[in-house]
Every structure is written in C-alpha cells, then in structure tokens.
Amino acid sequence: MLRAMSFDDALRAHYPGALSAERFVVHSQRELAKHGFDEANTIACVGTCRDELCVPLRRAVMNAWGEAFNFSSLAGMLLLGTAGFKAAHAHAPVVGGRERYLYVAMPHIGIAEDGSIGTARRVGREGDSTLCGALVMLGAELAAGPLSLEEDADNPELTQLRRKLAPHLQAGTELPLVELTDVAQRVIEQDLERLIELTVDTASADYAVLTGVQVHAPGGRTFVRPGLSYACVRGARHELPTPG
Q1: Rounded to the nearest 5°, which phi and psi values hold at 130?
Q2: Quick check: 197 and 190 in contact, CB under 8 A?
Q3: Burial status of residue 69 (CB atoms within 10 A of its CB: 0-12, 13-18, 19 or more)
C-alpha cells in the first residue's frame, strides 16, 4: 500500500483538483444549463462500480437530474453495449423535437485516514476493505503474469474487465492502484465515446459527458477528480470549465 501523512495529503498528491461529489454535480448542472440541459429535458445515465459505496454519487446525480438509467458494472466498465445505450436513449424526454443525454461514468478508489491507498471502512465490517476490489484483484493477477482472457461463464463481468484492460497493461508488472485506476478511467472514456458515436444521432439529440475518478474518503465522504467534461449540442462540442 502507498502511504501518505494523511488523507488530505494523499488526495492532493494523487488527485489534485478533486472536489466533493455534491459540488461536482452542482457545478456541472449549472454549466450544462448554459447549453440547454435541465432535469425536465435530459436523461442521466450513470456508470459506476456496483459497490454500495458508489451510491452517494449516483444519488447526487439523481437529486439533480431525476431518475437515472443505470450503466453500472464491476470497476465501472461500460459493458451494456449499444443495445443498452439505445435502451437508455429510448427513455429520454423529447422536448422541442430533441433528446438530451447526460453520461456520468468513472471508476473508484478509496483513501484511508492515514493516506493508505485502496482501502475504506464499511458499515458492519471490522478492519479495512479494498477499493476497488475488482481492480485490486486484477492488479494482483497482473503482477503474477498475463491476465487470463478465457471466457468464465460464472464471471462474465470480470472476464470483460480483464479483456478491456489487458491491452493497456504489461504482464508481470506491479502497477500501483492509482495508476491502474487511471488506466480504467481512460478505457471507460474510450468506450463511452465509441458507444456514443455508434448510437447517438446528433441531428436529433444533444449529449454531455462527465468522467473522472470517484474517491471514497473517511466518514462516508465522496470526492471526484474530474476528467472529460463537455457538452455536444447540435454536433458542436463545448468544453465545460472546472471549478476554480
């Protein structure tokens, strides 16, 4: 485990620019309003890990945007494919002849009070718990050698996680969890933009993208280090400013 003097030190060192999940959602909602997105005309689609600790971010998104379509899977990978994206789009409001989609997608990691990376406390369990458990498992497998890419019918999401990350990783490498999580973020972003390209008709729909890394903090707090942040309106991309 990487060590730091405190949670705050570790957050600043590894995730500069991170802000509370609530501020992340409120700020993005305010900026997206300038491009015509609001709760009444937009469907939010949220892709996080299945972990219950990710619920506060999903809840913050729904408080701002209404009921959301759930894209979640292990480590936040986008495994629902074009069929899932099209299903979400079919649920969007049609206002003024246009549909609007908001995609929030990111992996997650934990930082303990003493700055330990990859740990968190869970209600009802003693000791530390790993975060993200799926990425910690994959990191251990990676250090031992090539990842197994064979189909495991009893672990379809883990199989897809290995297959998606393997091309970006070197077998036999002990990759720090922060770096592995950053790889997961980049893969999620690439998959998200590819699936958008395959399923969104910008002649009749606008969309917005919010990615990053979700960081779990002591006391049940949640932070987000923003990644991609933009709106695409009538085919034109508009970058969203990050909070100062």
Answers
A1: -85, 145
A2: no
A3: buried
Tokens describing residue 203: 């002649």
pTM comes to: 0.94
Q: Dihedral sign, CA of 41, 244, 55, 74?
A: positive
Side chain identity at residue 137, one-letter code:
M
What lies within 8 Å, CB to CB, of 219 at 6+ separation is: none
Token pair recorded at residue 219: 């006391």
**CATH fold for domain 7-233:** Beta-carbonic Anhydrase; Chain A (3.40.1050)
**Confidence class for position 127, pLDDT limits 50, 70, 90:** confident
- What CA–CA distance (Å, rounded) separates 229 from 161? 24
What is d(CA 67, CA 80) in angstroms, rounded to the nearest whole number?
18
User: What does the domain layout of the chain look like in residue ranges?
Assistant: 7-233
